[in-house]
Amino acid sequence: MSVEARERPSDAVNAPRSKPRKRGRETNGTLSQQRRKLLIPFVGPALTFYVVLFIIPTGAAVWISLHNWAGSGPMTWTGLSNYTALFQDELFKKSLWNTLLLLVVVGVVMFVLSFAMTLVLRDMAGRKIARSIIFFPHLINALVYGVLAGFLFNPGGLVNTLLKPFGVTEPPQWLAQDNLFPLIMLTLTFMTTGYYTTILMAGVDRIPPYYYEDCAMAGANAWQRLRYVILPLTWDVFGVCAVLWTISSVKIFEIVWIFGGSSGSGIPPTQTWTAAVYTYATAFSGESLPAYGAATASAIISLALVTVLVVLIRRVMRRDVIEF
Amino acid sequence: MSLSLRAPSLRRRPSRPSLSGGGPLRAVGIVLLWLFVALNVAGLVWVVFQSFRDTRSILSSPFGLPDSWSFENFSTAWKVSDFATATFNSVSVAVISSVVTVALAAPAAYYLSRHESRLNRNLTLFFILGLGVPVQVILIPLFVMLNQVSLTNSLIGLNLVYIGISMPFTVFLLTGFFRSLPAELEEAAALDGASPIGTFLRVMLPVAKGGILTAFVLQLISHWNETLLALTLLQSTDKYTLPVALISFVQQQTYSGADWGGLFAGLCIVILPLLAVYLWLGRKLSEGLTLGMGK
């Protein structure tokens, strides 16, 4: 292609389809040239913002992660040593582990719940209103849930007040540092289930009713209907949800940062750290010398995690698309 | 990566025949589901009610109703804790950055979706790949870059950042939307001698109003809620947006004792505008975030 273009510069644009109809080619040429001219004014501004404020920082992150840098002063090249140091850092391993727990445990529980709710919602009376209500929490800042959890679970809080009539006089220390993370997982499940239910609902709603009618005529029971109709026809939506959750779970930050009212110093106890919290705290906590190199390296590891998982999910979930 | 996108459609479905077996399991499921729905509503109502009560009565009877509808918590939060400035900052940043985002992304998405070529497909993919990058990756480079041009601790800097990070999602959503519009419209406009830019402005934009409004409001919501970047880039209280102000309010309480009344008022300031927007545009938003995403 490029060789050809160099030989016949005037014809380069239309080279592949220049032969059959001359007149047609001519008008096509001006039209597509006209269109090409519009590429810059239409796409240029968006592309500039995107490249300057997104792509260049991403590239810079890779660059910074290969250095030792306190934010000001000289950068010293250290190669991959930030990465090897991270994998020996107990705190980072804990943070990464917590992120994986959110991704997998919360992910699986939430998917099972969402799918179950979808099946119940599918032909329930009042489904529209129920669906609109369970979607709303997705729009609220996760901070709100973190703050509320502090109210619900603090020693004189709502949960303990509710438990008292049942004879629980010595309730567990909900907000003890070791219990925080399970509570965070619980809260996240509560927050996100509604959103994924609405996405799955959108998938299930696309199944035309005559499939169900066929099922009824063939005498299929509920399980068979699920196994042979609903699951195969919503498979691609499951795939999209899995990708979506992978991407959004790796950047969970706010709720951990504030959960249970947080500690006095403003940094949550290390037992609850996620990868995003690790990145932020390592660079901006103000407690120790900021380590920009290590912090960005940890973020790049999150990016690698997302990339690998998304590719894997797409591999595993790939099926022949069923047209209907 | 195959990308088949479909814009939110407003087609109404015929009511489906009831197919439920009506087993006991299903009955339990329905009860649990309504419980979950009720819990969500009750939680919201409860937060609003508590914001009208003082801290002592909230703690002594957490399910109590407010004695009077006094806005004392709100005015304290508004004036003393300076949620007023934070609200103003949040509103201005969210509105400005969302307007600019959509103004830039709509023409790009229109061009990329209407003109098939390898370059355009690759450009679309290039935009969409940004969806997979967690925000913590660009956090430090952005801070360093903006610091060099003195745009940290500045709402202008925050606006720019929000515009940049919103491009992937907005272009993704709007390319899907423009692709769903009939091609005949453009051809008719071209036959009538409209210039391509005229076609975009006078024919396609009015038709795409719904999709663009959805994209705008989704950005508005996400910029209203954005926390990590705001927390990193803003340092002085007069620049704080609402989420940052809320965090600093919570952290002050560890020293000054919990002011739950004020805190609930703060939560209401964060939640209620969202509720208003959702009541206004509910279906469109959920479809933008589900159908636009799910297909």
In short:
The complex is a heterodimer of chains A (324) and B (295). Chain A contains 13 helices and two strands.
Word description of this protein:
The complex is a heterodimer of chains A (324) and B (295). Chain A is an all-alpha fold and 324 residues long. Chain A has two domains: 2-65, no CATH class; 81-317, MetI-like (MetI-like fold). Helix content of chain A is 69%, strand content 1%. Chain A has helices at 2-7, 22-65, 81-86, 90-122, 127-135, 142-153, 158-163, 177-205, 209-218, 222-250, 254-258, 275-284, 292-317, and strands at 67-68, 76-77. Chain A has a two-stranded antiparallel sheet. In chain A, strand 1 and strand 2 (76-77) form a beta hairpin. In chain A, helix 4 (90-122) packs antiparallel against helix 10 (222-250) and helix 8 packs across helix 10. The radius of gyration of chain A is 27 Å and the shape is globular. In chain A, 36% of the residues are buried. With 295 residues, chain B is an all-alpha fold. Chain B has a single domain (74-294), classed as MetI-like fold, CATH 1.10.3720. Chain B is built from 13 helices and no strands. Chain B has helices at 24-50, 55-60, 72-79, 83-114, 118-129, 135-148, 155-179, 184-191, 196-207, 209-225, 228-233, 242-256, 260-294. In chain B, helix 4 runs parallel beside helix 7, helix 4 (83-114) packs antiparallel against helix 12 and helix 10 packs antiparallel against helix 13. Chain B is globular and about 70 Å long. Chain B starts with 23 loop residues before the first helix and ends with a helix. The model of chain B is unreliable at 1-20 (pLDDT under 50). Chains A and B meet through helix 2, helix 4, helix 5, helix 6 and helix 8 of A and helix 1, helix 4, helix 5, helix 6 and helix 7 of B.
